[in-house]
Amino acid sequence: MTSLLPANYLPILVFFFIALGFGVVTIVMGYLVRPKNTYAQKLTPYESGILPETDARMQFPLRYYLIAMLFVLFDIEMVFLYPWAVSFDQLGLFGLVEMILFLSILFVGYFYAWKKGALDWD
After folding, report:
1. Is residue 44 part of a domain?
2. Coil, strand or helix: which one is 49?
3. Count of domains in the chain?
4. Residues sharing a CB contact under 8 Å with residue 5, sequence separation 6 or more, in sequence order
5. Residue 15 structural domain
6. Residue 45 lies in a domain
7. Contact 54/47 with Cβ under 8 angstroms?
8. What is the C-alpha to C-alpha distance for residues 14 and 8, in angstroms, rounded to an integer?
């Protein structure tokens, strides 16, 4: 006879309810413990001790997003070096050739972005 809830999913269900209970308990405790006396000075926007002078909704140049995307792209590609370094002895010459090919494609993309001026800050 099979049960409707497989035994393998029971620990996941328990952890889900523990996490849900922890979230609910911390939100309720924060609501009960926090100070409730607000006044006008306390409700003003605050940033580094300086009163805001302009509207918070300002446009950022496209170059900012391009540099951020390139950083994420190269950062994620460099993460692939760690598993390769761990299993380097088992991969042998084939693994070395594959990593040289991977790094050459990575550096071609890096130099292309550099020559196009995507990495310039000004």
Report:
1. no
2. coil
3. 1
4. 13
5. 7-36+58-115
6. no
7. no
8. 11
- The answer to the question of residue 25 being in a domain is yes
* Domain CATH code at residue 88: 1.20.58.1610
Give CA–CA dist 100/93, Å, rounded: 11
Q: CA–CA separation, 120 vs 14, rounded Å? A: 51
d(CA 15, CA 21): 10
Structure tokens at 103: 């790094």
| Structure tokens that stand for 114 in this block | 């550099």
Largest CA distance in the chain: 70
Chain centroid offset of residue 102 CA: 24
Q: How far out from the chain centre does Cα 42 lie?
A: 32
- Domain membership of residue 98 (yes or no) is yes
Residue 28 burial class via C-beta count within 10 angstroms: exposed 0-12, middle 13-18, buried 19 and up: exposed
**Going residue by residue through the chain (122 aa), what tens digit of pLDDT does each one get?**
556 656 678 888 899 999 999 999 999 999 999 888 877 777 776 666 666 677 767 777 777 787 888 888 888 877 888 888 888 889 889 988 988 998 898 888 888 888 888 777 76
